[in-house]
Design a protein that fits this description.
With 126 residues, this protein is an alpha/beta fold. The protein is built from four helices and four strands. Helix content is 43%, strand content 20%. The radius of gyration is 15 Å and the shape is globular.
Length: 126
């Protein structure tokens, strides 16, 4: 089964912020390829305020041999967006693309080892 990874950020009115996120996703794509991950595509998408939206990102996969899409919310907390808005967008996408398996992954802030990564980053700055 061919799969794609979509990484979702909130989105910003700042093009600089959105471009920074797109660069991060590109780096993740390169790392995934180097680690042997089998993604046909790794693409950014935004909850709001920027494009592409989840649906628009899925539409970008239209001519790719993709049957499964994994959505990774790059959010720190399980607030309204993670708990309600993103699942609602995923359900809408499932209705629009019934031939795709769309899987909502756990959000970034729930990752094990995050506290250690924060401390490492702080240590690199002092």
């Amino acid at each position: 089964m061919s799969k794609a990874l979509l990484i979702m950020a909130h989105g910003s009115r700042s093009d600089t912020a959105n471009d920074e996120f797109r660069a991060l996703v590109e780096a993740v794509a390169e790392s995934a390829h180097g680690a042997g991950e089998e993604y046909v595509a790794v693409l950014p998408c935004f909850l709001e305020l920027a494009q592409p939206s989840l649906v628009e990102a899925i539409q970008q996969l239209e001519h790719q041999p993709v049957t499964r899409v994994q959505l990774y919310p790059l959010f720190f907390n399980k607030g309204k967006h993670v708990g309600k808005d993103i699942p609602a967008q995923v359900e809408d996408a499932r209705q629009r693309f019934p031939d795709l398996s769309i899987e909502l992954l756990d959000y970034f802030g729930n990752a094990k080892g995050l506290a250690g990564l924060v401390l490492k980053h702080i240590g690199e700055q002092v």
